[in-house]
Specification:
Elements: H1 2-17, E1 25-35, H2 54-57, E2 79-83, E3 102-108, E4 111-113, E5 116-120, E6 124-127, E7 135-140, E8 148-151, E9 159-162, E10 171-174, E11 182-188, E12 193-195, E13 201-208, E14 210-218, E15 222-232, E16 237-246
Parallel strand pairs: 1-16, 3-6, 5-11
Antiparallel strand pairs: 1-13, 2-12, 2-14, 3-4, 6-9, 7-8, 7-10, 10-11, 14-15
Length: 252
Amino acid sequence: MRKSLVFSLMLAVVAAAAPCFAEGWGTVTGKIVVKGDAPNPPELVAKGANVKDASVCAVNAIPDRSVVVGENGELANCFVYLYQRRGTPDIHPDLQKPAEPTVVFDQKGCEFFPRSLVVRTDQKVNVISNDACGHNVHTYPLKNSPHNLLVGANDTKGVELEYPQGELLPMQVKCDIHPWMTAYWMVVDHPYAIVTNEKGEFKIENVPEGEHTFRIWHERVGYIERGLDVEIKDGETVDVGTIEVDADDLEG
């Protein structure tokens, strides 16, 4: 009797430790476009301007990349991510670990690259610089501890940062030395987040079966969609269609 009880308890412990997977997995796709004439913001730094570290920062003009719109109004750099009020979603076995343990955040021509970055809580951000001048990287998270670090000229080894808690929305990243330098990072504790490409498209695969809420956020607009409800069915793709953003909302 005692052996049977011990064996049952062992099975219970193993079951509790085993990862829980959904029964099915699907895909979400969509596209974000601008309705109306998108703003065309002026350059942040003109070529040859008298700015800090002009020999690096003013060699070429620096455009305002807070609005990147294609020929047909396609809006890039929108964050699309699964939102849960509590807990984390089931994660597909293939996505239990990120494809890359580290994502690279670079500085070139006194701009941050990429402008919009998704990073998982189990990834590190390798902050490097390909510029011949120093920068600082100052992050403004809501839940994680902020970082404010100096990155020296031509430091391609860089510094690694970690963010162990998922954020509620993308956080701003600034260079205080060159104040026009801005980027946004979205820290998530799951793999179901992406940034729209130059065609305004997004595709999130292997989402667990069931009803989910997605959020769409852009740095000029804020929330484009705060509660996009999607029902995922096994083996199916849900196309949420074209989501429009009013051009006036991009004026900033």
